[in-house]
Automatic annotation (TrEMBL):
<feature type="transmembrane region" description="Helical">
    <location>
        <begin position="55"/>
        <end position="74"/>
    </location>
</feature>
<keyword id="KW-1133">Transmembrane helix</keyword>
<protein>
    <recommendedName>
        <fullName>Metal-dependent hydrolase</fullName>
    </recommendedName>
</protein>
<feature type="transmembrane region" description="Helical">
    <location>
        <begin position="138"/>
        <end position="155"/>
    </location>
</feature>
<feature type="transmembrane region" description="Helical">
    <location>
        <begin position="29"/>
        <end position="49"/>
    </location>
</feature>
<keyword id="KW-0812">Transmembrane</keyword>
<keyword id="KW-0472">Membrane</keyword>
Length: 166
């Protein structure tokens, strides 16, 4: 799926995981590890779902990076590493498997690339739709956004506690 959907999943995971981290204590190492793993799993789930790519890769990557920077800026200091690790988990499969190809296409260069590691990027298991029939993809994107929004909504009070006052 487009990076922005993986970032949306990351914010959703953060809204749940950060619930216990509203006091400015040191965060347990296990919370970081499990949060990263949740991010990677969410990537797998989203990539298995049948999907097209409503945003082209250049816009997607630039917009995604911009959103990540904003998120890192708006959260309180003691949870900056937590959200960074969650977002890294959410996008690391694409960084590992796809970044040389994306960089080649953006900058017109010739970085070497290898076979994909993550099964949801294999042709047989990926939900990528290769014909242009994207109706089911739009429904799936919408469901993903509604699902994430509802979870974030239920965690909004806690989320506010870990955001900087603007
Ligand atoms: Zn992917």
């Amino acid at each position: 799926m487009n990076v922005i959907f993986h970032i949306t999943a990351g914010v959703t995971i953060f809204s749940v995981v950060s619930k216990k981290e509203t006091k400015e204590d040191k965060i347990n190492l296990l919370v970081y590890v499990f949060s990263f793993v949740l991010g990677v799993i969410s990537h797998g789930i989203l990539d298995y779902i049948p999907h097209c790519y409503p945003l082209n890769s250049k816009v997607d990557v630039i917009l995604g990076l911009f959103i990540i920077l904003i998120l890192l800026y708006v959260v309180k200091k003691h949870v900056k590493l937590l959200i960074a690790i969650i977002l890294l988990g959410c996008i690391s499969p694409d960084i590992i498997d796809l970044s040389p190809k994306i960089l080649n296409s953006i900058f017109n260069i010739n970085l070497p690339f290898f076979d994909n590691i993550f099964p949801w990027h294999f042709y047989d298991y990926s939900g990528s739709i290769y014909n242009n029939n994207c109706k089911v993809s739009s429904v799936n994107h919408l469901l993903t956004l509604v699902f994430c929004t509802i979870i974030i909504f239920f965690n909004r009070t806690n989320l506010q506690k870990v955001l900087n006052k603007i």
